[in-house]
Amino acid sequence: LSVVSTALPVPKVGEVLVKVGAVGVNPVETYIRAGTYARLPVLPYTPGNDLAGTVIATGSDVSGVSVGDRVYSSMSISGAYADHALCGAQHLHPLPERVSFAQGAAVGVPYATAWHAVVNRARSVAGETILVHGASGGVGIAAVQIARSRGLHVIGTAGTEAGMAMVKDQGAHEVFNHTVEGYEDQIIDATQGKGVDVIVEMLGNVNLDKDLDMVAPQGRIVIVGNRGRIEIDPRKIMSKEAIVTGLALMNVPQNDMKAIHAGICAGLESGVFNPVIAKEYSLSEAPQAHEHVMKSGAMGKIVLIP
Question: Mind listing the pLDDT tens digit for each residue in 216-236?
Fold first, then answer.
């Protein structure tokens, strides 16, 4: 990764030019940089889709977005790791004044992923118990806030005392340390032995077998993150008639994505959703940000400030 100077992009039909105030860093960008992702771009390539900033120009046939608007993006045409970025108008969403650009850059992928997991894939309903397994990162915090706002009983895990305190502050009813031996039993005990109805799993290759022990009969496990292989006993799924599913935002139809961001925008505007920033890096410090985002013990979202 290196910073270079290029000509300012010019928006074409349906495109918008945004002066970037902050950029969200996601693990997927490290996979692309390393060449291990399923879909690799043609080089040279500017990473990133999550950004927040101000609209400074629009192409023709653009509606719903005007010069001067504060926006966040869920996808970028030219790449978000820049001081200016082209975005399709349909991928820009209003950013309330109460939300900073750094917070806005933490919305796109994390909150859309969390919403899709909690609402669409898990089909959770008010009154159910949900476990956010790894709740102190960007997606985890979003999942806690979304689940709590929809009337679920929220259990979270984190790997440090500070992380646990933060997850509690974000609305989790109970929080456990997933580095402590036997924490799975503590979670089952917290449900009076029933198990949790829904699990949002951030590291499937480490935790999926544990999830199958903790999930309730007819429960659902949604795998959001994975970094390798794991051996499981399918009988655990059979005996509980559980459902194990995954998600990838690139598979979400545009109409469904529009509905996801409508829900997110409502939560940002009302104050129910509040992205948490772990650390801000300069654009030239993107390599360090990539190292940071892959470390355990997350405490919110990593962002770049151009």
Answer: 999 999 999 998 999 999 999
Distance CA 145, CA 275 (A): 9
With beta carbons less than 8 A apart as the criterion, state whether 81 and 46 touch. yes
Distances (CA, A) of 284 to 280, 281, 289, 290: 12, 8, 10, 12
Cα 115 to the center of its chain, rounded Å:
9
Q: Which amino acid is at 282?
A: S
Q: Could you tell me how many helices (H) and strands (E) the chain has, helices first?
A: 10, 13
Instruction: Give the tokens for residue 238.
Output: 């059979």
Please state, in angstroms and rounded to a whole number, the distance separating the CA atoms of residues 293 and 164: 18
Pairing of strands 174-177, 153-158: parallel
Summarize pLDDT for 162-188 with one digit per residue, the tens: 999 999 999 999 999 999 999 999 999
**The residue count for the chain:** 306
pTM (two decimals): 0.94
**pLDDT tens, 27-55?**
889 999 999 888 899 999 999 999 999 99
Instruction: Specify which residues 241 forms β-bridges with.
Output: none
